[in-house]
Every structure is written in C-alpha cells, then in structure tokens.
Amino acid sequence: MSGQGNFEGADQYTVTVADPLLMETLHRLFTQTCSHQVIQVAETEGWAATIWEPLAGTGAPWVGVDEAVGGSGGGLVDAVGVLRLAGRYTVPLPVAETGLLGGWLAGAAGLALPEGPLTVVPQRPQDRLTLDGDTLSGVAHRVPWAAKATYILALVGDEIIAVEPGAQGVSIEAVRNLAGEPRETVRFERTALAHRATAPAGVDAAALRRRGALCRSAQIAGACERIAELTVEYAGQRSQFGQKINRFQAVAAHLVRLSSEATLIGMALDATTYALGQGDAAFEIASLKSIAGDSGSDVIARAHQVHGAIGMTREFVLHHLSRRVMAWREEFGSTSWWREELGRMVGGVGADALWPLISEGSASLQR
Amino acid sequence: MAVAQSSAQIGASKGFTYTTFTAAEEDLKQEVREFLRTELPTGSYRPCLGMSADHHGEFTKKMAARGWVGMSVPTRYGGPARSAVDRFIVVEEMLKAGAPIGAHWVADRQSAPTIMRFGTDEQREKFLPAIARGEMWFSIGMSEPDAGSDLAAVRTTATRTDGGWLLNGTKIWTSNAMQNHWFIVLCRTSPNEGDRHEGLSQFLVELHGTPGLQINPIAFLDGTYHFNEVVMTDVFVPDEQVLGEIGRGWSQVNSELAYERAGPDRFLSVYATFEQLLREKLAEGELDVRSYDVFGRITARYWALRNLSFSISRTIDQGGAPAVEASIVKDLGTSFEQEMIELLHDLWDDEEPSQEAATLGNRLLAACILTGPSFTIRGGTNEILRTVANKGLAAWHGVSR
Which residue range(s) make up the domain with A38? Predict the structure, then answer.
C-alpha cells in the first residue's frame, strides 16, 4: 500500500495521500452497498450485514493494524482514508472500533484478531470498571456496537482486557447516539476475561482518546465533504422565485462557506495524518478534533438551512450525514474538551513558543 | 446523490494537498527567524498589525540585501528568483513578528509579478531590479470613489495624445502614496458600453513630480495616516509606461488580484496581538478555563488555515491556478481574524481597550478592534468574493450544475 512518503533528500517535500486503489475499491463498494434504504434499516436493527460482509472481505476494517497480529497492514494514512470514506458513506458499522481502536488494543495485548468486529470501551467519566482476579465487574457507557462485537476491549488501570459480550454476567442496555448508532451501556458482574495483558508503553487512556478523536474526525471530514457536495448540487437544482436558489447571494454565501469549513477539516486531517508518522501528534489531534467539531457544526447548520424543510425529513439523505456529525463531534472528547486541552498546551509552551507550535506542530514540542 | 468524482480525489482533500518544507526551505525559515531575532528582538518594538505595517525604508533595504524583496523577480532582472513557497516563508515569519514591511509590501506581492508578466523588457529593466533592491516602492491604483468591489466601474480615463496618454480621474484608498514611488493605474481607454470588462487598461504612473497629479491625505478612523486620494488632471503618461495591452486591463487586474488573496496576510493581522496577550496573561498567573478555550480555538484554526495557505503556495509553484482555493483562504482567514478579536476582547472584559493603555497587549487589542472591520473589505469584500467563488463551486466539487 502507499501512504506516507517522508522522502529522504534535500529537495523533497511530503504529500499525504491514501492508496488510490484501496480508495477506489471502497468507493465502489460503498456506493453499491450503502443505499439510503440500507442505512435507514441499519438504524433500526443496529447492524448491516449486507455492508459488513463484503467490507470485511476486502480487509479494509483492519487496515492500519499490523499483519503480525492478523491485521491487513498498511499505514495510518490508509487507515484514515478508510474512515474518511466510511464517514462519507455513513457506514453504520464499527469500522474504527474494529481496526484503529480495537485492533490496536488487541495487538498491544497480544490477542489474535478474530474474524468478527471489535469494540472498545471509550472511557466515559461515569464508568466504573474493576478487576477482581480474572473477572471484570462494573459498568461502561457508550460502548459502540457492544452486542455485535466478538470482543469488547477495555483499558482498566494499566491492563488491556477483552471480554465476550455473550459471556456470563454481561448485560447490555440499548442506548444510541444522536445518529441512532448503538452506544450501549454494558454492565459486568464477575465476568470472566477472555484475555488480559499489561498495556505496553504508549498504550494508555490518553492514547486511546487521541486515537478515538482521530477516527471520529476522519469520519466527520468524510461526512462534511459529502454534505458540501450534496448541498451545492441541491442548490443548483432547487428553484424558488423563478430561479435556482444558488443564484441568491445569501445562499451562495452558505455554499462557499460550508465548502470552506469542510475543506478546513480535511486539511486538518491530512496534516494530522502526516504528523502521526513523526510522533504522537498530540497537538495536531487536539486541533483536529476541535476543528472537526466547530467547523462540522457550521457545515451542518448551513447545509440544513440551504436544504430547507426537505432536509429535516427521514426520506432525504442529509440526515444520515448531519446526525452523524452531531453525534461524532461529542465522542472521544467533545469540541470544548479538546479546545481546552489545546489551550492548556498553548499555556504550557508560552508565548515565545506559540508560533513554532502553530507552524511546526507537535514536532516543536519534542525539541 | 453526488457521486461524480475523479478517482484521484476519492478520500483526499479537494484542491488542497498537504505539504511540508524541504530541507532548503527549512533553512530559509531559520535564516529569517535569526534575522528577526537580531533586527527585531521581542519587546524592542511595537508589532504592526499584519500587512498594514509601518513603512520603513531601511528595514526594507535590509530585507532586500537578503534577497527577500521582489522575491519572484528572475535573476536576469536582478531578483532572487525565489519560489512562491519561499515567499510564503518570508512573509509569514515577517507578519507573525509584526515587522515593518509596509514600504515594499505591494511591490513585492503584486507589482513585481505583474510587471514581469505583462511588462515590456524595458519596463522590466527599469522597475524590477530597483524593486528587488528595496528602493522602488509601489501603491495600488485600482479603487475609485464609485468603483470599489465593482472595479469594472472605474471612471478614470486615459485618452490618446501625441506619444502617450492623458489621464483624468480620481483614485482612492491609495495606501502610502505619499511615500511610495509609483502606482499602477487602472483606466478606461474606451467607452463603457456593451461588455464593461472591455476597454480597460493599466498604466505605470510616478506618484511624485508628475505634473497634474495631486495626493490628498485621508485620515483613517483610528487617526493614523496611510490612505490617500490621488487626483489626476491631464496627467501625461508616455507610451512606454503603458503596462501590458491596451484594452486588456480587466484580465491583467484579475491576475494581479489573485496574488492578493491567499497569502498569510489574510490571517496573520492579529497574530502578534494574540501572542502578546498570551504573554501578559501568563505573566499574571495561571490561565482559567475560559482562556484555555479561547486560546485553544484560535490556535487550532491558525494551524489549519496556515496549512491551507501553504498548500496554495506549493500548488502555484507546480504551475496550478488555485482560484477557488484562494477565495476560500481569504474568506476563512479574514473572517477568523475578526472573530478572534472578539474572542480575545471577551477575555479582557475587566479592562477597557485603549490606545493609551498601560500594557502593550491592551494597546494592540485596541488597534485591532478599531481596524478589524477593514480585514474583510480590503482586496474586495468577502461578500463579492463568495459570489464569484460560488460560480466555480459545482465544478470544484465535481457535482452537476
């Protein structure tokens, strides 16, 4: 696979592009499988086998997970590309959870990847999980597709643990996010662990949150790009007062601005993906998630305004996208949480190091 | 449903490609930073607000000695022949520091590339080496009292006479005309009928010592003086000062405007103020949650906007013509500059901004509040820019129109 070229050599500069063949394959697969109807039904059933089966067949959910532990290989650039497309087509499945999140934790714990999907406990402040011998007790909130996963993976203290959702002592309460995706409350009562291992260096709560924020931002980037396309196209078809509504300056302003904000998210994502090849990208991810939230909110507000009443219906495709942006911006750290986190970094480096931070990112923190 | 896309774009950012500095570009950045540490150590001067910077001929000549003025000028015309990315580096470091780059700003950004592109060999020989030496400074001669965002409405006329043209009319908002040497004047050379974009032409006109040309100051709202009105009454301009082709002024001026739109000048006007306010806030003690939120929001957007603008420089070096992209940067950048003034102001709600305040941060904030409304006006209003960008938007997204 392609990915990040940090070319050696004095006169080279870097471009960050996901493997075009992989992107083309997924683009075709998603346009064929992610129909309006299928996404709608998935919301009721919490699953879409007609998408998962062919998707799993391509290995795409495991892109970015080491082949040594059963992943598909490929770098973060490709994995982020997969999620960006998954966001674009509102894939109602745990793609991020199976690969960049669950696959990463499983790999770190030496757990062989199963064929089925994985999920992770996103570590909400209300969670209470305790280990007692080889059993897990307590409650975890907003676990994506918990009931459908082969394993639920979690960080408990400095350990990575895996449990099967069907194991004894597990009860799952159906809760959904604003987009209708399963985000379940899972209770464990002396549930036997399927696997446990001490988390290696670099695998901790903060790292999980950063990865989660990266995944949701990639999905938001893809969703916003498609929202921009849909809205520009719609405004060129819909007529009022005897002319296409994109002829009205006030509407045109919305179209340009929402395209711009969507572009800003995409650029933030590309820059972060590159930085991840150099280090933990703590600055970039904090910036990315807060931009995805702020700009994503702007994109959906303007898109709905341009669409008018039809955009507020279930029969029109916009809600699949806009509700996901509403939901994803909350997950793995809300917009304001990340803004504040970033503000602490800024305060920490001080005024003289602010410009290096903005222009060089996390790399400037490592000096 | 919008699915029409070329495969090259799938899963990638449209129009913008993330890029990083080469080793040589990194060296240039360090050289500029070192220059600034020597010439303008922090705390030794009051930072300027971005491109509306102090006019400082000596500073300009020092920069020119490093090859940082008229950067696009080819070596055969005495210039350093630097790339758009190199210019991006110098400009962002200068603006970030609030350096006094006012003397050469217009000459470097747009006059030199315009003369290079449309000028005769004689004009290039005459102007470009002097611009690159930091000795010849330019103003813009586009706006008129009745032609702002609607440039095709210019009324200044140039009529044929023996060996040249006679110019009559008034240019306005001509920044630094009292100190600069030349300006490029957009005139009507044939009547405004039918296609109003036809019949416009550009002329190189000397601002001082030209009979019939009068410069009248216009006070800016904060009491400073850089704006002027330039009145021309039967100003004789010889044929050798016609820039480009007679009648092609509209396309020439649009090409000139494109240089204006996407640079770091569209988002760094308030940066030095932000940095200074952060410095003072930290000196007062621990930041509170509100400050963290505001500083985080501003920093994130700076970082992303800068990457967009940087990407455009790279695209230009590769021969691209990123028109929609440039509009995006100007609209996002200048709107953001205004928003951040309000965000920062809110953090200092116990202290009224004043140009005479005890702290530098407060004085700079006061200046930002006063001049901020101009950010989304200069270079063509954002409203008109969006209307123009909208025309290319469906094609840019690859959706049906």
Answer: 1-93
Of B20, B287, B400, the CB nearest to A233: B400
Q: What is the pLDDT of residues A155-213, one digit of tens each?
A: 999 999 999 999 999 999 999 999 999 999 999 999 999 999 999 999 999 999 999 99
Residue A111 lies in a domain: no
Residue range of the domain that includes B113:
23-136
Question: Considering chain B, what is the average pLDDT of its residues?
Answer: 93
Nearest CA in chain B to A249: B387
For A356, the token pair is: 């290096």
CB neighbours of A133 closer than 8 A, spacing ≥ 6? none
Using a CB-CB distance cutoff of 8 angstroms, which residues of chain A are in contact with residue B14?
Answer: 225, 263, 266
Tell the burial category of A174 from Cβ atoms under 10 Å away from its Cβ (0-12, 13-18, 19+). Answer: exposed
My answer on whether B84 and B179 are in the same domain is no
A56, A174: one domain:
no
Q: Name A135's bridge partners.
A: A132, A192
In a domain, B5, yes or no: no
Distances A235 to A89, A231, A254, B344 between C-alpha atoms, Å: 21, 6, 10, 36
Of B275, B301, B328, the CB nearest to A351: B275
Q: Flag if B401 and A236 touch (Cβ within 8 Å).
A: yes
Q: Do B397 and A294 touch (CB under 8 A)?
A: no
Taking alpha carbons only, the member of B184, B182, B103 closest to residue B141 is: B184
**Mutation choice for A interface testing from B19, B261, B299 by most A CBs within 10 A:** B299
